Amino acid sequence: MSTPSIAPLDRSETTFRFLAEPTSVNFGGKVHGGALMKWIDETAYACAAVLVGALLRTVSVGNIRFRRPILVGNLVELRARVVATGRTSMHIHVSVHAGDPKGGELLQTTDCLVVMVAVNENGHPVPVPAFVPETEEQKRRSVSSNTRWT
Ligand SMILES: CC(C)(COP(=O)(O)OP(=O)(O)OC[C@H]1O[C@@H](n2cnc3c(N)ncnc32)[C@H](O)[C@@H]1OP(=O)(O)O)[C@@H](O)C(=O)NCCC(=O)NCCS
Question: Pocket around ligand 1: residues whose beta carbon is below 6 Å from it?
């Protein structure tokens, strides 16, 4: 029996998908903003780490807006995509969707731009490989690294 083929992995994109657990919610049953920001940071880090062979530091998280709450038990999907690189920085757009895991569409709750800087063991910035958009989708989402969403 032949092995089914798998679509090639887009190394500039990372998706985390999980259920919101009671440990992440406040007394009203909604996910803490701080918990969501941690997930955003972790997803952006994983996305950048695939492309950068160095440690990374979060230098900024721009334009974060909580559009609608995430409820305990919701399916949460964080999608991080590289949109630009500078000399030492990697700019990652993170989009968060959530909804009922039993069906229905996942609605966007948040999106933001995370900037990560590659550093050496002394904490000094080091160059990152340039992100060159190749596919139409990558070209559409790429922005100048001079864009500041803050
Ligand atoms: C990240 C850090 C090493 C950068 O050091 P620095 O001396 O400020 O470095 P630089 O001024 O050379 O800037 C480095 C890059 O960050 C970018 N940068 C700096 N401030 C920025 C901001 N507010 N928004 C977006 N990018 C920014 C610069 O444009 C530069 O990018 P480039 O090389 O691609 O052009 C340092 O600021 C640091 O350690 N900060 C604390 C990080 C931290 O603790 N994060 C939370 C936990 S991971």
Answer: 57-60, 86-89, 115, 117, 119, 123, 125, 145
Q: Express each pLDDT in 109-145 by its tens digit.
A: 999 999 999 999 999 999 999 998 888 888 888 876 5
Q: Assign domain 13-141 to its CATH architecture.
A: Roll (3.10)
What are the tens digits of pLDDT across the range 39-52? Answer: 999 999 999 999 99
Domain coordinates in residue numbering, the chain: 13-141
Tell me which of 38, 82, 112, 117 to substitute to probe ligand 1's pocket, judged by most ligand atoms within 8 Å of the beta carbon: 117
- Report in angstroms the alpha-carbon separations of 18 from 30, 72, 88, 97: 15, 11, 31, 11
Q: What is the pTM of this model?
A: 0.90
Atom 4 in ligand 1: residue holding the nearest Cα: 125
**Per-residue model confidence (pLDDT) at position 54:** 85
67 Cα: distance to centroid of ligand 1 (angstroms): 28
